[in-house]
Amino acid sequence: MAAVLPSSVAPGKGASSRQADTAQRAELEAGLVRLKTSLSTYLKPAEIERVEAAFAFGDAAHIGQFRVSGAPYVSHPLAVAEKLAAWHLDAQAIIAALLHDVMEDTAITKQEIVDRFGNAAAELVDGVSKLDRIEDQSYEEAQAENFRKMLLAMARDVRVILIKLSDRLHNMQTLGAIRPDKRRRIARETLDIYAPIANRLGLNTLYRELQELSFQHLYPLRYRVLAKAVKSARGNRREVVEKILQAVKKRLPEAGIEAEVMGREKHLYGIYRKMREKHLTFSQVLDIYGFRIIVKDVPTCYLTLGVLHGLYNPVPGKFKDYIAIPKANGYQSLHTTLIGPFSTPVEAQIRTAAMHHVAESGVASHWLYKDDKALSDLQKKTSLWLQSLLELQSASGDSTEFLEHVKIDLFSGEVYVFTPAGKILVLPRGSTPVDFAYAVHTDIGNHCVACRINNELMPLRTELHNGDRVEIITAPHANPNPAWLGYVKSARSRSNIRHFLKTQQQELSAALGERLLSQAFRNIGAVLADITPARWKHLLHETGSKSKHELLTDIGLGTRLAAIVARRFSGGVNKELGKVKTAERKSSGPILIRGTEGLAVQLASCCRPIPGDPVIGLIRKGQGLMVHTHDCANIARQRGDRVDWVDVEWEPDVDGLFDVGISVLVQNQRGVLAKLTTAIAEGQSNIVDVSVEGDHGTTASVYFTLQVLNRAHLARVLRGLRQIPEAIRIVRLKDREINHHHH
């Protein structure tokens, strides 16, 4: 993605511009020489020739195009290729980098690249090329589409994203020449998407650079102020730092440890973010000094840690072992925070040379160091992550939703939890057991009903912590609950739940729509089943629906009224049918509901009907059928307009659990709550929620939300409660009153 569109303005041909041309050409030649020198360390001469041919090809294609800064356009692809050469990427990737803007900005087609440089290079170029923008697409939609395309290409070949990230880095480094508003937009996008991707792939150096540059362009003032403050603060700390370094450098050899010890600069964006997120002042953030110790092998890492803890006191709880449990991007090190002289906190990272390579250049280090076991693990992790992106892509319909899902995944810290078999799963920070269930398998997520965390039954919305052991309890008939969307953290669970609800809602709504329409037909004296396909076709045409299924879904969702559809229909068949006697119309019978239809039929929260309650239905646009009890106060207000009221009754054999609220006034004595809960459990009812009010006096009110099968079941539970001597008064609540008590 070129940050700068080519300006087609050819410079004037005065002498000065010719000199500029010569100077610019010389600069390009020098760049090409640098690139070839760098490539000659690891590529064969024949491959370097192909790279040179690609440069010439790109140079010719971009002729007469300039960057906003006035440099010839081809200087940009050259700079990108140089960055990739530093990672020892192969000839195909380097060629693709040199040609990465050719398809977008010039008349050259993918086929021409295939013919000249082979299929692989052309695929890579295609992967980083933007799609043509469609007329009525917003900038955001177009970006999301491009991003989705790029991620799919990247899942096939990770070099696509390496080219893209180097491209983005060079654009960020040369952002100065662009309009401020555009500059901010590009910087914001880099911070939101590209820097986190670099981090996810373990490209640490690149990640930091992208963050710093974005920060600098997004908040130039804050950046300058911080930079100045950091500079002066560093000067003031120099001797403390030297003292610590000398002490460590002296102590390690005494313990027989050979190590490279170096100081580590904190990055401005990191400091800024800490200040923002933790509401800290500058001095609070800056009093941590960090250094890095690189040793020969893993056992020595742990020995070194022991030596450091002998030299200075460690801060309890600040030790992290990423060697035993690497981060998701393959990062490994031991981290500890020590209290140095003058009680200065000091962060130490201990790692081996191999870990250091991975920490600095992540996935890209695979090309640099071909032989490392740690890297094959990293490659596996990366491809797993990319696979999970592909899954998201198929589950989320549009690209803006997909982008939102990916952002969720990129931004989170990590929490490490164990399956019952002792396998470690890495989830986004703040994840719940529902996220865990989906991480194990989509089916487990879709059917989970409860969970044990560290062997205790806990609610599904509990936030997981490092080291938790999580066990999911599933039930074959359970389905995702829309409420989960309120607390799941991972993109995978979110998109799975959405996907399920979308398809399920349509099925249920269509079934309800069919029942409603069939009732409306009986009202006008027709039978739904008798309708000929030709009549259906006519009806769909009349209503503008694509299919019978869509029409029924619309009726079920309440976006169309069954009565009106039926009238349209009858209007076409027979004018006489409209005069059906009222006696007949009434006899069409109510609609039977189960209450478990999911989103198509909703039990109103103002009165919480349960099976056995006399009920009445109300069709609301886009919400489907709302079921209220007959005596619901809300209904009395809306009783006037009869249009959308529907006769409903419970099916005789409803099975399902329904929430119902009760309040119990009790004498406030010890153990009374235990008696109540025991009685409820003995009545085979679950308690969803309980709260107590006014427990200082002699009496207290206890509010329960219970789950019951039906009215008879509730009566049984209440009978059990009435036998408790301390219970003074027991009533069933309507939801409003419960809410009122909760606040």
Principal-axes shape call: flat
Q: Which class of secondary structure composition applies to the elements?
A: alpha+beta
Distance between the termini: 52 Å
- How many domain regions? 4
Q: How large is the share of residues in beta strands?
A: 15-25%
Domain ACT: 661-736
EC number: 2.7.6.5, 3.1.7.2
InterPro entries: ACT-like_dom_sf (IPR045865), ACT_dom (IPR002912), Beta-grasp_dom_sf (IPR012675), HD/PDEase_dom (IPR003607), HD_domain (IPR006674), NT_sf (IPR043519), RelA/Spo_fam (IPR004811), RelA_SpoT (IPR007685)
Function: In eubacteria ppGpp (guanosine 3'-diphosphate 5'-diphosphate) is a mediator of the stringent response that coordinates a variety of cellular activities in response to changes in nutritional abundance.
List keywords for this structure.
743 residues; alpha+beta; Hypothetical protein af1432; Beta Polymerase, domain 2; 4 domains; 21 strands; disordered C terminus; HD/PDEase_dom
